[in-house]
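Researcher: Please translate sequence to structure tokens.
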Amino acid sequence: MNLNDLRPTEPTQLAQLSECLRGKSAQAAVPSALPENFLISVARDLRMLEENEGDQHGSSYLAAPLMLLFLLHTGNRNSKAEFTIGESAVYRSLHLYQWAVEREIVTRLVGAGGLNDESALLEGLEQTRMASD
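Model: Translation complete:
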């Protein structure tokens, strides 16, 4: 196997990702719960956002990560009140999610984990959301 063979060439397919998440809890959006094809595709989307910062095509790479983040942000709340988040909090959430996605890929590749990445991700997202309120 060659890692280049795993490399996606297109942004994450939203319709397929949405179908995968339909009827599941917010926990389905945590990187450790994502199927490998979506995990790798979302990792590429996040890297392409960095690479193409300010580029008009960046929005196609932003869609899937934002969908996953908003599912995590809204699904892990006790209240059903309206959800708002500031631009800086979105960027912090994207960076935190990217960190968790990349750690999950490495964990799956090498077969050994480290920190409890899921807890760190959820706590970080909650702190980011609270800071933006």
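Researcher: Any highlights?
Model: The helical segments are 14-21, 36-51, 58-75, 87-110, 117-132.
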